[in-house]
Amino acid sequence: MTGNSIFASDFKDEPYWWEAFRPQAIEASSLPQKTDVVVVGGGYAGLAAARALADGGVQSVVLEAGDFGSGASTRSGGAISAGLSVGKSFTGKTLAYAPDFVREVVGWSIDAYRSLFELVAAEGIECHLEQRGRFLGACAASHYDGLRARYEKLRAGGATDCHLVSRDQQRAEIGSDFYHGGLVLETAGKLHPALFYGGLLAAVRRRNSITLAGQCRATSLTPANGGWRVTTSQGDVQARHVVLATNGYTSNLVPTLQRRLVPVASHVIATEELPPGLAGKFCPKGRTFSETRRVLNYYRLSPDGKRVIFGGRARFTEIDGATRARLLHAALVERVPEMADVKVSHTWQGNVAFTYDALPHAGETEGLHFVVGCNGSGVSMMPYLGTALGRALAGKLTGKDGGKLPFADAALPRIPLYSGSPWFLPAIGGAFRALDYFDERIR
Ligand SMILES: Cc1cc2nc3c(=O)[nH]c(=O)nc-3n(C[C@H](O)[C@H](O)[C@H](O)COP(=O)(O)OP(=O)(O)OC[C@H]3O[C@@H](n4cnc5c(N)ncnc54)[C@H](O)[C@@H]3O)c2cc1C
């Protein structure tokens, strides 16, 4: 794939991040017959829950259907921020919340951001974590007015770490004239998602009370002996409690949960190394970039500052690697025309989980504990909620104070007309793209 092709000669249809850390095949020699807690799902949330359970003196078995790290946690853009928008359904509907709840949610997202830095420091994880801020670009002139309103709200709420950037100043932030100005959020950053995952996995492996079982799918959950009999592809385990941490890969293991989560594909490319001078011009401050569209793109430089990592919902469903690479490369060039000759070296996709209220959730359903619903922003939130759930459960089992579980009082809402098969995603994706086109080209 050379010549005018957009594909680099060493093009790979797998995550760029896996060059530094690949998912691990860790198979338990035999599953224990009994344990305190079975954690289903070995991503950030499941591993963080197991780590917190171990530190609270509680045994666990983590079941992972694939290799450890094969889910979304090693596939993301690696962007993090201390903020969460409250009150928008993924359907576009506006939802009303009490101001106290909104304040609580914002507080949890700030806590999640801070605790990511604490976790990385506590476990000595080398994952290129750094706070360099995010530039949120306005895709239409009217969107800039929306950003101004958001900025004024943030300032009124006491935030001092944000500022507006007009269109004629934006080249100080990003080497692009695509946006109509933007908003900079300084309390935001990035990391290498697979190295972070690898460090968390190593931290879990240092704790003897955790059994990891890869290539081991939980296939059914049956109430038994005051707890649960967990049937897996490798036999049964009796547990006092079960934690479900399956996010965008949630199946019909627990239909109640499946009916509340929409798995949406998110797609990413990495470019080959940029020609000299282009990286500094494209991203002078090392920020991450996002935008105000409904079908948004998110992008950044790789940790070595040499490549672009460019992601987006090119389609809301799975597509083949070549199509994905072409769509995302075209979107990159639309924003940064100097990238026209830069080739794609890697492409990949993964699933995020949307909830009706666009909020993450942790809690209990039918006696099962869960932590799900990243809505595309889970690098700091999912380990935070996994840790909080692990602590709360350890507290319950040992009679100690396990702390308050964020979102525990907020019901995970049912999605109207949805039984677990997201038939409407192509239609929603198409409608959102049409609305974006209308906003940007016609209005
Ligand atoms: C392409 C992409 C880009 C993203 N970009 C960003 C970003 O820039 N910033 C950000 O904050 N977030 C981002 N995210 C979201 C973030 O990656 C996720 O929120 C986070 O990784 C979710 O972690 P998790 O542990 O909940 O789920 P996962 O890491 O997906 O783990 C769930 C695991 O459960 C396993 N599983 C499912 N069912 C079973 C079963 N029955 N038995 C056993 N195991 C099971 C799956 O195999 C999977 O490995 C992105 C996600 C994707 C896909």
Quick recap of the structure?
The chain is α/β, with parallel strands linked by helices and 443 residues long. The protein has helices at residues 44-55, 99-122, 141-156, 193-205, 255-258, 278-282, 321-335, 381-398, 425-442; strands at 7-12, 34-40, 60-63, 79-81, 130-131, 134-137, 162-165, 182-185, 188-190, 210-213, 218-224, 227-232, 235-244, 262-271, 288-291, 297-301, 308-312, 344-354, 361-365, 368-372. The mean pLDDT is 93.
Structure characteristics:
single chain; 443 residues; alpha/beta; FAD/NAD(P)-binding domain; 8-stranded mixed beta sheet; 5-stranded mixed beta sheet; 28% helix; 25% strand; binds flavin-adenine dinucleotide
Structure description:
The protein has 443 residues and is α/β, with parallel strands linked by helices. It has one domain (7-133, 187-414, 421-431): FAD/NAD(P)-binding domain, CATH 3.50.50. It contains 9 helices and 20 strands. The protein has helices spanning 44-55, 99-122, 141-156, 193-205, 255-258, 278-282, 321-335, 381-398, 425-442; strands at 7-12, 34-40, 60-63, 79-81, 130-131, 134-137, 162-165, 182-185, 188-190, 210-213, 218-224, 227-232, 235-244, 262-271, 288-291, 297-301, 308-312, 344-354, 361-365, 368-372. The strands form 4 sheets. Strands 2, 3, 10, 11, 12, 13, 19 and 20 form an 8-stranded mixed sheet that branches. Strands 1-18-14-17-16 form a 5-stranded mixed sheet, covered by helices on one side. A 4-stranded mixed sheet has the order 7-8-6-15, covered by helices on one side. Strand 11 (218-224) and strand 12 form a beta hairpin. The longest helix is centred in the first third of the chain and has 24 residues, at 99-122. The two termini are 40 Å apart. The structure holds flavin-adenine dinucleotide. Flavin-adenine dinucleotide is lined by residues 40-46, 63-66, 70-73, 75-80, 217-218, 245-249, 251, 253, 266, 268, 298, 311, 350-352, 374, 376-379, 382.
